[in-house]
Design goal:
By secondary structure, this protein is mainly alpha-helical. Helix content is 75%, strand content 0%. It contains 13 helices and no strands. The longest helix is centred in the first third of the chain and has 33 residues.
């Protein structure tokens, strides 16, 4: 699944073939859908891989750290390299300028797919093989990845985690959506938005390495509850002091540093839930649970983006219209009050309704690894 998904060709989406507008729109839609399908398959496959490679929760945390670091480095390099890539004479100044840059990215994706395939192959046990799921003569093939499998996955501890994850992503989505408006109209410094994004990338990169050491003494659940509680308090402070640019930057940097904790630990929670089900003698459904975990991000961001857009219209914001002090106050409240409520609810759900003994899960993983070693 990893190599198949990561060798998709994103440059095809933006390739200009001189098509009329409607045909071009259909072209982009179709190939963007294929690209996103491949991306999500790869994301799910990579998300489940730590469960096979790791023996303990700490191993999973470190694997997630390396994944975050691998994703952060290109983001930091892009600002430096993008100009040079766009200026390559082969496509500079043409309508295929962006497609050319995407073609270079596609080459790196293909190489990464081959590398990941070789890394993942030793962990593809016979039980994971699609070829072992062939039905017996006269029997229909059982679908283990349909809508009913997803519904079955939303049970037990997955329910509070799912809702908490959606709320967590929603509070982050509000910030990302409104950041440009906030820095431009409330703080009067449009360039600050880019600086905040860069600072977040740097802090996230450095902070990820600290998280596994912290989680030796704090559970995944505890770290997420702490981070969301901290976010809720920080948003309240933004509502009070956020019109000062320095205070805003300091608070946001602290939120990003604390946010490194759930950024690393949250990806391991669906795997904990899968092993919890397995420990009880049920199907682990790791791929399904990981996919559901990824859905929380998309649902949360989609909801917050939609709400933010309608809220901006409701307060009277419109491009070209004179910006008033009342609008500035309203944007500050949108940036703070709603996300504070979402963050607080996310923490409450995890604290009181998510009930998994992570130490018992770790003990089970060690026992499972020992049995697998003896069977070799």
């Amino acid at each position: 699944a990893i190599i198949e998904a990561t060798t998709q060709q994103p440059d095809i989406v933006f390739l200009d073939l001189g098509l009329p507008p409607l045909a071009a729109a259909i072209w982009v839609f179709v190939f963007e859908a294929i690209l996103m399908l491949g991306y999500n398959v790869a994301w799910t496959a990579l998300g489940t891989l730590p469960a096979k490679m790791a023996k303990t929760s700490q191993d999973i945390n470190w694997l997630n750290v390396m994944s975050n670091v691998g994703g952060s480095i290109p983001s930091l390099l892009w600002g430096t390299l993008s100009g040079s890539l766009l200026a390559i004479p082969l496509w500079a100044g043409t309508s295929n300028q962006y497609a050319g840059v995407c073609a270079i990215c596609a080459i790196f994706l293909a190489l990464a797919g081959v590398i990941m395939y070789r890394m993942a192959s030793p962990y593809d046990t016979p039980a994971d093989s699609l070829y072992n799921n062939k039905p017996a003569p006269g029997q229909k093939k059982k679908n283990d990845a349909g809508i009913m499998a997803i519904i079955r996955g939303l049970r037990g501890p997955m329910i509070p985690y799912f809702i908490s994850g959606v709320l967590n992503s929603a509070q982050a989505g509000f910030f990302q959506t409104l950041l440009t408006y906030y820095t431009a109209y409330v703080l009067g410094n449009p360039a600050l938005a880019a600086s905040i994004v860069t600072l977040q990338s740097v802090i996230g990169l450095v902070g990820s390495f600290v998280v596994p050491s912290m989680t030796k003494h704090v559970t995944k659940k505890g770290s997420m509850v702490f981070a969301q509680t901290f976010n809720a308090v920080s948003y309240v402070l933004l509502a009070i002091f956020g019109t000062n640019a320095t205070v805003f930057v300091v608070i946001r940097c602290l939120m990003t540093a604390v946010g490194c904790i759930p950024n690393v630990t949250s990806y391991g929670i669906p795997l904990d839930i899968g092993d919890y089900f397995e420990m009880k003698g049920e199907s682990s459904q790791r791929a399904i649970l990981t996919s559901i975990g990824g859905t929380t991000v998309r649902l949360g961001f989609a909801a917050s983006t939609t709400i933010s857009s309608f809220a901006l219209a409701a307060i009277g914001y419109e491009a070209g219209v004179e910006f008033t002090a009342e609008m500035g106050h309203s944007i500050t409240m949108l940036m703070a009050v709603g996300p504070a409520i979402f963050a607080a609810l996310s923490a409450i759900l995890m604290q009181f309704f998510y009930k998994i003994d992570e130490r018992a899960i770790d003990a089970y993983r060690l026992e499972r690894a020992a049995k697998a070693h003896q069977a070799e």
